[in-house]
Design a protein that fits this description.
Strand order of the largest sheet: 1-3-2-4-14-7-15
Number of strands: 15
Number of helices: 17
Structural class: alpha/beta
Bound molecules: alpha-D-glucopyranose
Helix content: 40-55%
Largest sheet: 7 strands, mixed
CATH architecture of the largest domain: 3-Layer(aba) Sandwich
CATH class of the largest domain: Alpha Beta
Shape: globular
Strand content: 15-25%
Length: 435
């Protein structure tokens, strides 16, 4: 596999893409039609696919691409590394795909994107491939399949699923906390043990990860953003209490003073450096924190469900899916790679080398997968995944997310109160949904 670290989205690249697209006279009508004149993946013709995904700190992407290339000697994978921030990645894809760029063939999509990308005509509908290869979609967790389905068609294949979990140092913590108040107590008390600097780490920067953290507090205290009928219900005493709990934690002295700049990346590095007692993150942290080559806490890491509020414990549903650019010049080969990554062999690599949770139910019974991570051998973990709370499901999700990011950040910096944040989110999301 070749790694291409170039980031998409620079002004000059965009300009070039726009000019090329204009010169080539691309019309709405091509795209899907391009597949017909494409080469057969079984032929000997050499094809290089550009595969884009966010920064992978685990090294699993390389293993995945090499395993695929071995089975498909005529297809080479060139990796295009995208930013780790889901929102930044999203914007770069939108820039490239709206200019009809064929540069990226295959890309990983956050679970919150497929409907939007399908609607915007950025992606290839995968139904004909799924049918031809007889892929059993019932073998996947239902929620992950649904996330890739829009208007009755499958646009994305589930690659791995995510749910927020609480990691802790087993050499410091005896009884992990069951409630957010207990977490606050223990983080405060245990900070400093074994040279730790911080009691707790979370993702509080103004970006998509803040929404996943907030959804967890809101869910734990019995609130919601939208109800089942898509009414906005975020302005509630439950949400106010949840935001107040976030404010209490972010304002405490057991979190880093720059916690408002923390994403998964900062969380991971502080935790594996041995600087923190507890950390909220996605399952992949089990892989890097137990990797002796890079983690100072390997062997001393446990996980448990996130603490409960008044209404129990809640994890946000995350995860990534694989999609094909509608303008890819190699859709058949692209499908081969998507099929491999999201099939049993590829998902096993993502679980074993990457620490991420499979979307194929049967893989949880696989011994190698079970041995690979602290989470996979725990029956409770599958329950956490199944009960994880999706972010608001709406065609205007990016707008809802932006509104929430702004209002929650203002509440966390103390510019507005929790009540004001809940009230503002309510009216602004309602307005956005009416437009
Ligand atoms: C993880 C999740 C993804 C989420 C992101 C937020 O990558 O899998 O769904 O949007 O974190 O930072």
């Amino acid at each position: 596999m070749k790694v291409k670290k170039k980031l998409f989205g620079g002004f000059w690249i965009l300009l070039l893409v726009v000019i090329l697209a204009a010169c080539s006279g691309d019309s709405e009508a091509d795209g899907n039609d391009k597949e017909s004149d494409d080469s057969d993946s079984n032929s000997d013709e050499q094809v290089t696919l550009t595969y884009a995904r966010g920064v992978d700190t685990t090294g699993a992407t390389e293993v995945l691409a090499e395993a695929f290339e071995k089975e498909h000697p005529n297809i080479k994978i060139e990796f295009q590394e995208m930013p780790s921030d889901s929102g930044e990645q999203h914007d770069q894809y939108v820039t490239a795909f709206s200019a009809k760029s064929a540069e990226i063939d295959v890309f990983d999509a956050d679970v919150i994107w497929p409907a939007e990308f399908a609607q915007a005509d950025y992606a290839l509908d995968l139904d004909r491939f799924i049918e031809a290869d007889d892929i059993d979609m019932d073998a996947y967790f239902e929620g992950t399949v649904k996330a890739g389905n829009f208007k009755g068609k499958q646009w994305a294949m589930p690659k791995f699923t995510d749910a927020g979990v609480l990691f802790y140092r087993t050499d410091i913590v005896d009884d992990p906390p069951e409630t957010w108040d207990e977490l606050i107590e223990q983080a405060d008390e245990l900070k400093g043990e074994k040279d730790t600097e911080f009691g707790y780490l979370m993702q509080a920067s103004q970006y998509e990860g803040l929404i996943t953290n907030a959804v967890e507090y809101i869910g734990a205290y019995g609130g919601a953003v939208l109800d089942e009928d898509e009414n906005v219900v975020v302005d509630s005493p439950e949400t106010v209490k949840a935001i107040e709990k976030m404010q209490e934690i972010v304002g405490s002295d057991f979190v880093p003073s720059n916690i408002l700049n923390f994403t998964e990346i900062e969380t991971e590095s502080a935790f594996i450096e041995g600087n923190a007692v507890f950390a909220r993150n996605w399952p992949y942290l089990q892989a890097s924190s137990n990797d002796e080559d890079k983690s100072k806490v390997a062997g001393n890491v446990g996980f448990t469900t996130l603490p409960a509020g008044d209404d129990g414990s809640a994890s946000a549903l995350g995860g990534w899916m694989s999609m094909i650019n509608r303008y890819s010049e190699h859709p058949e080969e692209a499908w081969e790679f998507v099929k491999f990554m999201t099939g049993p062999e590829g998902q096993k690599i993502t679980a074993v080398d990457g620490g991420s949770a499979p979307t194929l139910v049967d893989l949880y019974d696989d011994e190698e997968v079970q041995d690979a991570g602290v989470t996979f051998s725990e029956p409770d973990f599958v329950e956490v995944l199944e009960n994880a709370i999706p972010r608001p499901v709406s065609p205007i999700y990016p707008e809802i997310s932006d509104i929430m990011q702004i209002e929650l950040s203002k509440a966390l910096t103390g510019d507005i109160t929790a009540e004001e944040a809940a009230g503002n989110m309510q009216t602004k999301i309602e307005d956005a949904m009416e437009d």
